[in-house]
Amino acid sequence: MSLLSIKDLKVSYGGIQALKGISFDVEEGEVVSLIGANGAGKSTTLKAISGLVRADRGTISFNGKEIQGHDPQKIVEQGIILVPEGRKVFPNLTVEENLKIGAYLITDQKWVQEQMEQVYDLFPRLRERSWQASGTLSGGEQQMLAVGRGLMARPKVLMMDEPSLGLAPQLVKDIFSIIEKIHDLGVTVLLIEQNANAALKIADKAYVLVTGNMTKSGTGQELLVDQEIRDAYLGVQAKK
């Protein structure tokens, strides 16, 4: 049984079908990447799993139980956590306050403190800036904070929406290195990325979305060497 299973998922916005019946599975302990161009339906997929948009049809199961149609908070309580596109930090709150918001459903304060230490170990820069207003951080630091806040929610599945968007190349490398460290901690990761080269390199399994349809799947390595994928998504990066 898959940890997270999506079957025949259809989602529409204002009469336009964003997802046209996609199906895929995420196994426990995997890094799964969804790649595709802008408007392919990647973010819609994560929002549907999170309960932020309602599906027209299809099922979303977690640990064998249907969660389609559940309230977003109930989905968070089960351990499905979204790190949204654009970071969405609370700019007037400090780094530490943002991290504590991630753990708002957790009553064990000892665990919260231990988890915060783990986040600071992953992101030493956040420790240095723990009392700094989050709105004054750089883009890369805000992305680290968004990921750290997601980890504070005790995720079983951490879903990440374009974590490298708008970051300098060195920071992109840093973010993907952190994703691998998170995976090493035992967290299952569902990643959507326009940086297909980086996303496929760390993926156990990957799926390609094209205008709401799932067109290809395979291991990250299989898709990295697939000529059609190289031509469509990897370009010059594939030759490096």
Structural account:
Helices cover 38% and strands 25% of the residues. It has helices at 42-50, 72-77, 95-102, 109-122, 124-128, 139-151, 169-184, 196-202, 220-224, 227-234, and strands at residues 4-13, 16-26, 31-35, 57-62, 65-66, 80-83, 157-161, 188-193, 205-210, 213-218. It has a six-stranded mixed β-sheet with strand order 6-7-8-3-9-10, with helices on both faces. The protein folds into two domains: 1-79 and 155-163 and 186-240, Rossmann fold, CATH 3.40.50.300; 85-152, no CATH class. α3 packs parallel to α6 (139-151). β1 and β2 (16-26) form a beta hairpin. The protein contains ten helices and ten strands. It starts with a strand and ends in a 6-residue tail after the last helix. By secondary structure, it is an alpha/beta fold.
Main β-sheet description:
6 strands, mixed
| CATH class membership of the largest domain | Alpha Beta
Unreliable segments of 5+ consecutive residues: 236-240
Q: Give the total of beta strands.
A: 10
Distance between the ends: 38 Å
At the fold tier of CATH, the topology name of the largest domain is Rossmann fold
Number of helices: 10
**CATH evolutionary superfamily of the largest domain:** P-loop containing nucleotide triphosphate hydrolases
Order of strands across the biggest sheet?
6-7-8-3-9-10
Over the alpha carbons, how many angstroms does the gyration radius reach?
Answer: 17 Å
Beta-strand portion reads 25-35%
Order of helices and strands: EEEHEEHEHHHHEHEHEEHH
Q: What is the SS-derived class?
A: alpha/beta
